Structures are given as C-alpha cells and as structure tokens.
C-alpha cells in the first residue's frame, strides 16, 4: 500500500493521444481555414486599417472592452496576438468574408486550465456583416478546430447581460447559459453584470449557413 504525503492531487481528466497531439495546434501560428462562406486566418498588419475602420463604431463597441484607438494601435494589437500565439496559450483568427481580402472581425481564444481542456473565447464582427451568417460560419469552423484538433473540451464565453446579439448567436451555436456573474465586467466607470456560457462538444447544433455578403450601409 502506498503512502500519500500531503494532499492527493485531484484526478486528471482523460488525456487522449489527440490531446497530446493537440499541443501542436497551439504552437506558433493559427492555421488558415477556408470554406465558401468564410476564411479564418492569422491577423496580418495589413488588417489594421480595416479593423480600425470597422470595429471602432459605437454599436460594435457597446458591450466589449474599448478597441484600440488608432490604426497604429491596431497594428500593436496584431503584433501582440502573434506574441501570445508564440507563447502557446492564445489563438486569434481574423474573419475574412468571401468578398474581401482583409479581416472584418476577430475571434480570440485563450486556454484556461493547466490541462488545457478549457478555453474562453471572445468575438467581434463589423456591423456590416451582422445577421449575414458570417459569424455563424466562422464560429462553426472555430468550434470544429478547437474540439477536434486543439484538444478543447469546454469552451466558455462571458457576455454582458444586455448583449442580445452575442447571447442569441451563442444560443444558436448550442451554448448553455450556466451562471450570472454579478458586476463581472468593469467598463467606462461602471460595473456590469455578465452571463457565463459554455459549449461542450455534444452541445453543438447543426447550423445551416449560406455564403454571406455584406449589407451596404449608406
Ligand atoms: C456577437 C456578434 C459577433 C454576433 O454576430 P451576428 O452576425 O450579429 O450574429 P447572428 O445575427 O448570427 O446571431 C444573433 C442572433 O441574436 C438575435 N438577437 C438580436 N438581438 C437580440 C436580443 N436583444 N435578444 C436576443 N437575441 C437577439 C438575432 O436575431 C440573431 O438570431 P437569429 O439569426 O435567429 O435572428 C456580433 O453581433 C458582434 O460583433 N457584436 C459586437 C461585439 C460583441 O458584442 N461581441 C461579443 C462579446 S462576448
């Protein structure tokens, strides 16, 4: 009989070979994943101008942390995503629609737990593409990559309670509302309540996506 000195370690979740292989998915550069509906790829400095123009509008920024304030700041943000990816805990995909060369949105994923089976994601998309299916098509690709290649079993998201679009999108993807985080988010001098969502592989719902096109704003 063996003697246990100190506190026993909590049991570790199963570590399938695929999870070990998954370490490679977090090393360095995100892959480019393309379908007829969307392309996901690493951000490049050429995206800075597009992201600045598209993601600094009031409706886009209403429920998220303030975006970088200048094109140069977006460039610094893009450099930062590359450094984070090299450190192995962060993935950042630019969302490129079929009719564009530059990114019009971003999906970021950060690994949370020491065994790396839990991650949290956040996302933002140009208002021009809201309701077009571009986010759903992109989110589907990211979920498939995270669950089938990157070893993630539980994907969390936090939304401000009043963020109807993000909540609606998460529900369409199969996310389960797990909790209410009182004053979980501090922004512009006030604390805001959040909802904690999670998606496990079995929660996913089939999504029918069409090839998205931007609505034209005049
Ligand atoms: C979150 C975001 C990426 C979602 O993309 P989107 O294209 O707007 O998402 P979709 O249109 O596919 O899905 C949103 C759903 O919410 C629904 N919805 C809209 N307002 C809603 C509300 N107040 N309450 C509940 N559902 C709402 C929409 O009707 C839609 O469902 P439907 O397709 O069944 O009609 C995008 O809105 C965005 O970038 N928002 C700003 C940034 C942000 O808030 N990010 C989330 C941070 S956690």
Overall description:
- By secondary structure, this protein is of the alpha+beta class.
- The chain has one domain (29-212): Gcn5-related N-acetyltransferase (GNAT) (Aminopeptidase).
- Helices cover 28% and strands 26% of the residues.
- It is built from 6 helices and 8 strands; from the N terminus they run H-E-E-H-H-H-E-E-E-H-E-H-E-E.
- It has an 8-stranded mixed sheet with strand order 1-2-3-4-5-6-8-7, sandwiched between helices.
- A hairpin with an 8-residue loop joins strand 3 and strand 4.
- Helix 2 (48-55) crosses helix 4 (71-87).
- The radius of gyration is 18 Å and the shape is globular.
- It starts with 16 loop residues before the first helix and ends in a 19-residue tail after the last strand.
- The model is unreliable at 213-218 (pLDDT under 50).
- Bound molecules: coenzyme A.
- Coenzyme A (COA) is lined by residues 60, 63-64, 122-125, 130-131, 135-136, 157, 159, 163-169, 172.
- The site of coenzyme A has 21 residues, from strand 5, helix 5, strand 6 and helix 6.
